[in-house]
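Lecture notes, part 5. Sequence design as translation. It can be helpful to think of inverse folding as translation between two languages: the language of shapes and the language of residues. The source text, in structure tokens, appears below.
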């Protein structure tokens, strides 16, 4: 009989929602003038790899993608349908 140990299952993912006017990021990869792979400072220590980044400009979604890595207080996220312009910081 197979039993699942709940302590081994990953927690539910969270969504980190940020207003685009307050969001600073570095473009790692872009396509057609849009940043689809970005790095940004992570201010919320509860966010983990696999969580979702949602960047809004009022009600318009500019970026909606998974956080694919976290290191040294910075996160990397990917959205192939991003509407974010390249780089806000260098």
């Amino acid at each position: 009989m197979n039993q699942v140990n709940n302590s081994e299952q990953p927690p539910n993912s969270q969504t980190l929602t940020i207003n685009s006017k307050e969001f600073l990021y570095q473009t790692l990869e872009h396509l057609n003038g849009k940043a689809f792979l970005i790095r940004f400072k992570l201010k919320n220590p509860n966010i983990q790899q696999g969580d979702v980044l949602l960047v809004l400009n009022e009600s318009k979604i500019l970026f909606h993608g998974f956080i694919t890595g976290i290191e040294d207080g910075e996160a990397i996220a990917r959205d192939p349908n991003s509407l974010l312009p390249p780089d806000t910081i260098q």
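The translated text above is only one of many valid answers, since several sequences can fold into similar shapes. The first strand starts at residue 15 and ends at 19.
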